């Protein structure tokens, strides 16, 4: 058995063991949903960082930098910007919310808004969970010890089991471990890359390098609208806020992670540019050629950590949202049992998606675009206590989401300019329904 394979085996064994140990610490449904709302600064920060640095953030930034150069810095810069905006709002999220984002929407706008959000978000988030399993399967199959299909099933079952066993208690523990592995793995690869002769020929970073023919100001605007805003209003991000023991802990954790994302963005962009100019290979193959076996094993464990940490948080959040449709009081034991049933169902569906779909970024970006067009404006309006037309909130959510999705599909079909304009239009449509009464009776 090779050293990288040993690292991977030990990693999977550790996360399953942590999940089993967490099972015995679940005393109430609140423990399972939000870790009893007792999580301190380090677990909340570690879990938030690991959740953000999912397969899409790491592999996506590296892939983007190979085609756009230093302009790829904007990817995680936008994530950090979203967190900086969220920081002063986190106290309201913690104050008005309990378990989920739809619960917040229900608090602000009533039962209809909560219901439609509870239907839409789990469906959209299925694509995100599936994308993480796809990434994990590609990483495992790259070790050439298991086929892609078997790797997808294995990775999916492992993260499903430890999420099912320990809920948020398990996730906070495994995510903290995963954050350490992610940072250590990326640091190791960067150090080894910087010591090679090719490092001297790296393109210089300056103001002009932040925009080019492959990444324009319009591309940055679309990234802000469809990616950055999901860190201001996001079910997975809010789930970390709900776990924090108090408002101050939640706010500090968000700020810590926002600042950490800035140097991590430089590291990932550097690695992407370096790998693109030296070999043009995928980052996993590039790392295998560059690193000794021990460090390569650490790097593979780090990538798996990034992927699994996003998958578990998203899976639990989606299952919890669906359970709220059937139970007004989520503190009931029956509600906890139903949440676990949904974890099995949604986890299994995500594995099926991973077996038949292999595009990571497209699956993620379609889901995020729909979500941002549907929910960002209403959630910000609720948190800022802006006056809205309550009867039109559901229409605003549906119209904004589907127009944004149409724009993204147009973009994927090759008409990028038109697609981007439609995505921008989605936010205007959403705001129109939200703030302007379209009822003749009310106007009169």
Automatic annotation (TrEMBL):
Main localization category: membrane
Cellular location(s): Membrane
Coiled-coil residue spans: none
Keyword vocabulary terms for this entry: Membrane, Transmembrane, Transmembrane helix, Transport
GO molecular function, one term: transmembrane transporter activity
GO cellular component: plasma membrane
Transmembrane spans: 6-26, 38-59, 71-94, 115-139, 145-165, 177-194, 214-233, 254-274, 294-317, 338-358, 364-384, 396-415, 421-438
Its membrane topology: Multi-pass membrane protein
Signal peptide: none
Superkingdom as given in the UniProt entry: Bacteria
A Pfam family hit: SSF
Annotated InterPro entries: Na/Glc_symporter_sf, Na/solute_symporter, Sodium:Solute_Symporter
PANTHER family: SODIUM-SOLUTE SYMPORTER-RELATED, SODIUM/PROLINE SYMPORTER-RELATED
Sequence similarity: Belongs to the sodium:solute symporter (SSF) (TC 2.A.21) family.
Protein name: Sodium:solute symporter family protein
Species the sequence originates in: Mariniphaga sediminis
